[in-house]
Backbone:
């Protein structure tokens, strides 16, 4: 197989959560556009329908079909509705990218941490992954193939308090990493691969505008051995590796792209 065929998604349908454009945009836009650039039709699911519609336009400009759906991933009913719409339009889901997520609204040590913030972060970052995976896996099992990419974090593999305390984010992303291992084991014989992508510091809006703060940027740059914050577009290569046949013999694993932070 030619190398360009290994990374080809022609004829595939990729479902990306948290894919809306706008002020809160994170890596979902990059996932969706890179999938389209590789030949896939893309479903852009986001709690902000207007944002999902905006980024669906960018997929169509690349010559691919796009579907924008409003979806709060913490609601199993909304998730099931979004997947049903996808099946109605495209007939399948080949790749699920569980990207929707939020960070701790206010970094704090645990004894000072707001209980409602704890529950909200875990609901989005962990329960959302459960809901979307549950809704899609039945279709993948029936098809005998599929890929799930869970967007975790380097903070799911280590603590973060040497930079800032974000206990809910760390806990949820750690759980996502181990859920990914379990999904890999459960569905290995079904032709389905589930892997976790663990980014380090990427310049997005996930941190609520923190990357506009020079002190924050200086702190995370100093913490990163490569001495820079990654551009959002740098996530495209690792994501395509996990979405395509390049990773067919890999499941239940974590792919860390963190500028060497975890090597410390």
Residues:
């Amino acid at each position: 197989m030619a190398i360009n065929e290994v990374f080809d998604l022609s004829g595939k349908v990729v479902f990306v959560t948290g894919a809306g454009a706008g002020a809160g945009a994170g890596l979902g836009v990059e996932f969706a556009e890179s999938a389209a650039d590789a030949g896939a039709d893309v479903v852009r699911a986001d709690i902000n329908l207007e944002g999902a519609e905006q980024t669906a336009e960018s997929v169509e400009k690349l010559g691919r079909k796009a579907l924008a759906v409003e979806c709060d991933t913490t609601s199993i009913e909304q998730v099931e509705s979004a997947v049903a719409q996808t099946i109605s339009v495209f007939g399948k889901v080949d790749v699920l990218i569980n990207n929707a997520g939020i960070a701790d609204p206010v970094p704090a040590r645990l004894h000072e941490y707001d209980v409602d913030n704890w529950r909200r972060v875990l609901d989005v970052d962990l329960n959302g992954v459960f809901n979307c995976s549950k809704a899609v896996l039945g279709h993948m099992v029936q098809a005998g193939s599929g890929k799930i990419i869970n967007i975790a974090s380097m903070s799911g593999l280590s603590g973060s308090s040497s930079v800032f305390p974000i206990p809910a984010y760390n806990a949820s992303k750690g759980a996502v990493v181990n859920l990914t291992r379990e999904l890999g084991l459960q569905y290995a014989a079904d032709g389905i691969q589930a892997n976790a992508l663990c980014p380090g510091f990427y310049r997005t809006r996930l941190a609520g505008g923190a990357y506009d703060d020079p002190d924050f940027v200086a702190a995370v740059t100093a913490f990163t051995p490569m001495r820079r914050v990654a551009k959002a577009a740098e996530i495209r290569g690792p994501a395509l590796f996990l979405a395509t046949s390049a990773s067919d013999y890999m499941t239940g694993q974590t792919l860390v792209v963190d500028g060497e932070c975890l090597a410390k």
